[in-house]
């Protein structure tokens, strides 16, 4: 049955406008138009699509995208849980911020899952078994890292791989800026353990479950991609699977990776510990200077000032936190305190042995404890006692030898007996002079004056001998105390150094 001319004109206009949007003959067939009109008014799709003529991947992409809904979890049975396998490889440790408790790492993150709607038969598409698709066109699980505190500068990977069985592989590098509890007490021999927790932010375990892509043993010891030339060394990566609930109603699955890293301490040992050790050794060497000389005080004051400048320089290198102080900071403070104690001890000893002529006699209990008991208990032999120049008049004695304080060793038999011998001789001479004049009444005025002069000389010598004995005793007390305090100081420094060295060695090996 043919149409009239009016209907023919109307259909011509309608078909002429609709032919531009019709890709097949369904619309014309729907209008009930005879087949002889089709070639005239409808544009047939080209039998040869040009550059897409043999494009298998294009046909496959069109096949997979036809009717695909990326907003719906890709399962045919809604009761089936989508299992997402994840994997983690640490590429580099970018920054460890102890003050803000933030760890910045660069990791290679991999995740894969099965999409039941992205399945095809490879025989229908020239044996193509996998294809890359835009990430924006497929369903992607909402798995995030709980410890995220900042968006890192991660490259955008816009594609995922899909196999013919529906396995979707989403591999991408991520710069992870995460919060981490950093313990700096063992600095610079510290080992840090930071966690990266992967979980679905919304879906419960009934919808999305998480598993490992590799075995925990292979994951633990994998350092194949780690850049091992920085300050931090990767020890291992531990994994832990956990199911938790917030309100005891909905349960969520999470996979926690513990990244264990260790600081390389060589730089800090050379620039922090060794200079401090050298200054402490020089402080110990300073005890071998004579205690009654001003050089020891000047030397120790110089060391104290130098150590203060050293602490100012290294203060920027030490990590600063509000929750604790590293042990090396305590070590520096204790070393400063030891230097102050050493300087205080030197000042006291110098004050004790200086200007002995103006000091009272040594108390008996001091003589007993310091000069008698202490040398026996602490093995300070008598031959190690010292005597110094007693006064400026010692040079006038013929049998004395001029020595500096602390440089001449005197035995118990020779403890500065020169003054005693001379005093005794002069006493005898004085008595002899006195014997020459048994009666002052018969002596002339000249002889009386001579007797007065001899008596004055005798009194002066006796007083000088007493001052020398007092000075000698105080000097011996000062030297014995100096030896005792030096030994106590040396034991304290050695014990402190051994304790810290043992702790740091254990932390380094652990």
Structure overview:
The protein is α+β, with helices and mostly antiparallel strands and 510 residues long. Helices cover 40% and strands 21% of the residues. It contains eleven helices and 13 strands. Strands 1, 2, 3, 5, 6, 7 and 9 form a seven-stranded mixed β-sheet that branches. A four-stranded antiparallel β-sheet has the order 4-8-11-10. The protein has a two-stranded antiparallel ribbon with strand order 12-13. α8 runs antiparallel to α11 (445-509) and α9 packs across α11 (445-509). The longest helix has 65 residues, at 445-509. The protein starts with a helix and ends with a helix.
**Radius of gyration, whole Å:** 49 Å
Give the H and E element order: HHHHEEEEEEEEEHEEHHHHEEHH
Distance between the termini: 97 Å
Q: What portion of residues is helical?
A: 40-55%
Tell me the fraction of residues in β-strands, as a range: 15-25%
Low-confidence stretches: 12-48, 383-440
Continuous helix count:
11
Mind summarizing the main beta sheet?
Answer: 7 strands, mixed
Averaged pLDDT: 76
Task: Classify the secondary structure makeup into a structural class.
Answer: alpha+beta
Number of strands: 13
The global form is: rod-shaped
């Amino acid at each position: 049955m043919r149409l009239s001319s009016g209907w023919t004109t109307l259909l011509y206009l309608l078909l002429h406008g609709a032919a531009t949007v019709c890709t097949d003959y369904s619309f014309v067939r729907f209008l009930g138009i005879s087949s002889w009109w089709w070639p005239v008014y409808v544009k047939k799709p080209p039998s040869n699509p040009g550059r897409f003529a043999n494009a298998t991947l294009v046909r496959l992409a069109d096949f997979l995208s036809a009717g695909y809904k990326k907003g719906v979890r890709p399962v045919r049975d809604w009761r089936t849980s989508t299992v997402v396998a994840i994997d983690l490889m640490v590429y580099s440790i970018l920054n460890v911020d102890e003050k803000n408790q933030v760890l910045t790492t660069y990791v290679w993150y991999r995740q894969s899952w099965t999409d039941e709607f992205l399945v095809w038969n490879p025989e229908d598409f020239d044996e193509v078994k996998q294809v890359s698709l835009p990430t924006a066109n497929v369903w992607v699980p909402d798995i995030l890292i709980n410890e995220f505190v900042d968006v890192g500068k991660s490259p955008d990977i816009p594609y995922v791989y899909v196999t013919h069985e529906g396995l979707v592989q989403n591999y991408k590098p991520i710069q992870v800026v995460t919060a981490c509890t950093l313990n700096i007490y063992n600095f610079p021999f510290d080992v840090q353990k930071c966690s990266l927790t992967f979980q679905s932010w919304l879906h419960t375990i009934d919808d999305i479950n998480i598993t490992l892509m590799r075995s925990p043993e292979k994951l633990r010891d994998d350092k194949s991609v780690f850049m091992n030339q920085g300050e931090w060394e990767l020890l291992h990566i531990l994994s832990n699977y956990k199911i938790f609930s917030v309100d005891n109603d909905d349960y969520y699955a999470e996979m926690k990776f513990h990244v264990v890293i260790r600081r390389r301490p060589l730089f800090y040992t050379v620039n922090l510990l060794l200079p401090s050790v050298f200054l402490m050794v020089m402080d110990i060497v300073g005890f071998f200077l004579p205690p009654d000389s001003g050089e020891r005080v000047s030397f120790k004051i110089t060391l104290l000032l130098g150590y203060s400048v050293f602490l100012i320089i290294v203060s920027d290198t030490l990590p600063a936190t509000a929750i604790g102080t590293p042990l090396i900071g305590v070590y520096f403070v204790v070393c400063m305190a030891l230097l102050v104690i050493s300087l205080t001890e030197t000042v006291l000893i110098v004050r004790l042995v200086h200007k002995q002529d103006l000091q009272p006699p040594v108390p008996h209990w001091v003589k007993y404890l310091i000069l008698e008991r202490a040398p026996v208990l602490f093995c300070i032999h008598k031959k190690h006692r010292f005597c110094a120049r007693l006064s400026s008049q010692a040079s006038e004695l013929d049998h004395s030898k001029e020595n500096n304080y602390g440089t001449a060793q005197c035995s118990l038999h020779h403890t500065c007996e020169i003054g005693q011998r001379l005093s005794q001789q002069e006493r005898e001479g004085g008595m002899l002079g006195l014997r020459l004049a048994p009666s002052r009444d018969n002596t002339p005025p000249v002889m009386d004056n001579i007797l007065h002069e001899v008596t004055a000389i005798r009194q002066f010598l006796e007083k000088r001998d007493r001052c020398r004995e007092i000075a000698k005793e105080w000097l011996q007390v000062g030297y014995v105390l100096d030896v005792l305090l030096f030994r106590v100081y040396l034991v304290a420094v050695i014990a402190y150094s051994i304790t810290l060295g043992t702790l740091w060695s254990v932390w380094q090996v652990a």
